[in-house]
Amino acid sequence: MKLARFRINGWESYGLVEGAEVRAIQGDIFREYSISEATYPLDRVKLLPPTQAASFWAVGLNYAAHVAHQEGALDAERIRREAGVFRPWQKGVNCIIGHTDPIVLPPEADYVHYEGELVIVIGRPARRVTPDEARHFILGYTCANDVSGEGSWSKDLTNWRRKGSDTFGPVGPWIETEVDPHRLDIITRLNGKEHDRGSTSGMTHDCYAIVSGISQFVTLRSGDLILTGAPGAVEALHPGDVVEVEIPGIGTLSNPVEAEKNEAS
Amino acid sequence: MKLARFRINGWESYGLVEGAEVRAIQGDIFREYSISEATYPLDRVKLLPPTQAASFWAVGLNYAAHVAHQEGALDAERIRREAGVFRPWQKGVNCIIGHTDPIVLPPEADYVHYEGELVIVIGRPARRVTPDEARHFILGYTCANDVSGEGSWSKDLTNWRRKGSDTFGPVGPWIETEVDPHRLDIITRLNGKEHDRGSTSGMTHDCYAIVSGISQFVTLRSGDLILTGAPGAVEALHPGDVVEVEIPGIGTLSNPVEAEKNEAS
Known about the structure:
Chain A is mainly beta. Chain A has helices spanning 64-73, 76-82, 131-134, 207-215, and strands spanning 2-8, 11-18, 21-27, 33-41, 46-48, 56-59, 88-90, 96-97, 103-105, 109-113, 116-122, 138-145, 148-151, 169-176, 185-190, 193-199, 225-227, 242-247, 251-259. In chain A, strands 1, 2, 3, 4, 5, 6, 7, 8, 11, 12, 14 and 17 form a 12-stranded mixed beta sheet that branches. In chain A, strands 9-19-18-15-16 form a 5-stranded mixed beta sheet, with no helix packed on it.
């Protein structure tokens, strides 16, 4: 089942994606809901970020192939030291955008790259759950782009603007509830050309370990989103680009890239 | 003006604190509202965290006196390297609790301490504002306890559980809108005994610089909360303690401390 959040004529709703249409849902997808008779063509609605997350988590360096890539690009000693450590952090809900919304590059950024990732969508409050129990607290999965930038802030001690600047968190297009999260391909494309293909089977900490791990100290809430790490190589983004993250079995998240407009100009 | 969020008989509202009473507010304190006729004794309402923040930010090592203290307690070389760097990060809304709510110590924590701090409350969306403009985007100020723990997680690479575990973010008791944020004392008390007293005049990055700085990359929203750093020394918390953060001119935030109950026991 594919659950989308969408807007049409100024009205927002959840819906069930059925082929090229979306059927509106009445009620709360995290509690009780019913499927309505009203359908809309997908190409006539605006897809919104699939939840209104209270928290937007990420887990860094969760694939050996990505670690190897980052050793070449960044401080190799630091990357090796940090690889394998379970290190969730809060990317911040401020940066979440939806399918087709533009990724906006701030002028201070010298180099911004994409990271195509699988996202866990929490379905009900989870606290101190085991990895075996974790699957029952997950509603489904979607795609994200963990946009990351380097710039004048290379000496920063946190990811607050490197990975948390506004628009650096595209999520969507919708939630797939029936999928094995550890047997998925993640394909990233820039301007239609495939640049990277990885498999979620390569995760260091799998989805159930991640949910269990965070929940030992933090109550995860319905709708919370967790990025699970980039599987491989990354590529720079430039204004005018279109970047796609496709996870076959879920869908394709596509976002154009723009330079930030100076309001004074 | 003191703005509180409170609950009485299962009903939640904002209110105006007038002496020992709170007068209910109708409407949205960030847009349009009116003052009602209904008043309640403060000691009969439950004070809630003063906003429903979308983002809960913190700025680390923002006072020289606190840096000196931390050099003694933690990795001195790292602390000296990091002092002075503007480094906001997201503590996470999951950990926010209100006045009188218990701080719950997880069994994995060996040592948990308080950090009494001034909190900035954002009043309207702020993006790319200058320090001079920043005051117009701030609704007011409140008190917080930036609870921080050391434990089996001392090798962690982020603050996710050290400072972001559930209940590690007490905020309140209410918002004071008419106060000079850079001429305030911050007093922390443990079981009634004063342990630390600092002044917000010692901030490295003042409140307007903080709001301006974050807003260069992030849209701050109405109700967002920003911790501005601990001014001095800190002290360990133990089950049974009561910890107070008083900022004269604003109010006193008080929280009991408990050990986490094992649900199985």
